[in-house]
Write a structure and sequence with these properties.
Elements lengths: L4 H7 L7 E4 L7 H9 L9 E5 L4 H9 L4 E4 L4 H11 L4 H9 L18 H7 L3 H14 L3 H10 L3 H17 L3 H15 L5 H21 L21 H18 L4 H11 L9 H8 L3 H14 L12
Length: about 325
């Protein structure tokens, strides 16, 4: 292996199944190394797992934003770590190609095989619920309409931190939705903005990539009007039947486990079950956090919901 892992990975992109990324490394820390790997299209599907003696919330958020998908703390249990690697590792290049050209793309129109704009194969790997995937793509397209213009206005006001934060959020959302070009260019824009360098060129390219992504989304996930379902009748705090309270406690605990994945896919089915016991309006704040990929905010909303209905819900830590 060459002197630095980053060089070796660039020279051997198809020989790696998974990266265990130590966050505390000399020369370049693990967060920056992961961020730079994610800028390269050949590593869009490479699983990167954070490895640290202690992972505090700030590190957790930074690692996730840089494209890491899981976290292991030292000292780690060998058996569970091996099991995790087996679960997360990507197939070899030949297998990935075979899968992407057969099963995963069999149901997708040929116009969506341009992987750098909207990688449907990757999206279907990330999302087992195709309607939910399409729903989140639609939200991305509408939510980031005019986003590059918003970044330029922030720059005109001299607000570099807010401009970088918007690029950062766009990058993370694009990664979760398998929009490689938008993810890569938004990450690059964030880096340039944080350094307060001239962002003219990268913002032009980001605007083009974002418009191409929105166009692909409109074809793959056309908007449609959905009748609003009211959900269960309003619950009155302090007058909740014991069996309903028990069901809420079980579902909320399951929801917290799902939120730990930082992925809306396992969360949506639990929210649907909760709507059998609580009106949709009472879950609106929680659902909006999930749809904005704000999973820590969703956890806070779940705790507020639990407190309102006197349901015991233990706190979960993200800095273990």
């Amino acid at each position: 292996m060459k002197k630095y892992n980053h060089d070796w990975l660039q020279a051997n992109p198809d020989d790696v199944d998974l990266v265990l990324m130590d966050l505390q490394m000399p020369v370049m820390d693990g967060i920056e190394a992961a961020r730079q790997l994610r800028l390269l299209p050949q590593f869009d599907d490479l699983p990167i797992v954070a490895l640290s003696a202690g992972l505090f919330k700030t590190q957790h958020d930074a690692a996730h934003a840089a494209g890491m998908i899981h976290f292991i703390t030292k000292p780690f249990d060998i058996a569970s770590t091996v099991a995790l690697i087996r679960q997360l590792r990507r197939p070899h290049a030949a297998t990935r190609f075979a899968r992407s050209t057969t099963s995963l793309l069999a149901s997708a129109p040929a116009t969506f095989t341009g992987f750098t704009v909207l990688d449907v194969a990757r999206g279907l790997q990330l999302w087992s619920n195709v309607p939910a995937y399409r729903d989140y793509l639609q939200r991305f397209a509408s939510g980031y309409d005019g986003a590059v213009g918003a970044i330029r206005r922030l720059l005109a006001d001299g607000n570099y931190p807010a401009a970088a934060a918007l690029a950062h959020k766009m990058s993370g959302d694009a990664a979760n939705l398998a929009l490689p070009d938008t993810h890569r260019l938004a990450s690059e824009a964030e880096r340039v903005l944080l350094a307060r360098r001239d962002s003219t060129i990268v913002l032009v390219h980001l605007g083009e990539a974002l418009e191409q992504a929105r166009s692909a989304i409109r074809k793959f996930a056309p908007s449609r009007v959905v009748d609003e379902v009211p959900g269960a009748p309003e619950l009155v705090a302090g007058a909740v039947a014991e069996d309903v309270r028990t069901a809420l406690a079980v579902l909320l605990e399951r929801l917290m486990v799902a939120l730990d994945s930082d992925n809306p896919d396992p969360v949506e089915p639990v929210l649907a079950l909760l709507e059998n016991y609580a009106p949709r309006a009472s879950l609106a704040a929680l659902r909006e956090c999930v749809r904005s990929f704000d999973f820590r905010g969703a956890e806070a909303a779940a705790h507020a919901f639990a407190r309102h209905y006197s349901v015991s819900l233990p706190e979960r830590r993200h800095d273990a």
